[in-house]
Amino acid sequence: MNPYLSPFVGQKFVNVLGFAGYSGMGKTTLLKQIIPLLKEKGLRVGLVKRSHHDFEIDKPGKDSYELRMAGASPVMLSSSHRRAIITEHEAVRERSLAEELCYFDHASVDLILVEGFKLEHFPKIELFRPSQGRPLLFPEDPTIIAIATDGILPVKTELPQFDINCPGPIANFINDFLHHGTA
Hints:
21% strand, Rossmann fold, alpha/beta
C-alpha cells in the first residue's frame, strides 16, 4: 500500500487505512474484532478515531487536569504501562487527518487504522448496512477500496465485498493490501 501523503510539506506517513461509514454502521465493533487479527499476523497497529464531540479524558481533581487548567499544554501522563499526551487546541475547529497524523509515532507502527474522516482522501473500507437507510459513500469517493456490508448493495460495483459480521476475511484483505498494494 502506498503511504498516505500529507499535504504538509510532502511529509509521508506510514500505511493508513480508514473505516468509513455513517454513525451506527458498526465501525468500532468491526475494528475491535479486526485489530487482534492483524496483531496475530505480526502487525503493529495504531488507531486514530475522530470524535465530533468535546471530550475530556482527564478528570477534575487529578493533578494532570489541574495543571492543564492552569495553562500547561501539552500535558503528558506517563507510567510503566502507558503514556497519554493531552494538547489543548488554540482554535476550536476540526483538524484534518494529516494534521493529527503529525503527532503519531510512525516508527512504532506498521499500519494506522482510521475511524472517521470519511470525507478525506485516503484508502478506506466502507461499512454499509442497507437497513440503516443511508446512502453509499463509494459512488462519490474513489478512495474506497472495499465494502463491508450485511446485505445486498443497491448498486453494482467491482469493489471487493465482505460480510461485515465476518472479520477474518477483512483482516486478510487488509494484510494483503498492506503487503502487495492489491488484494
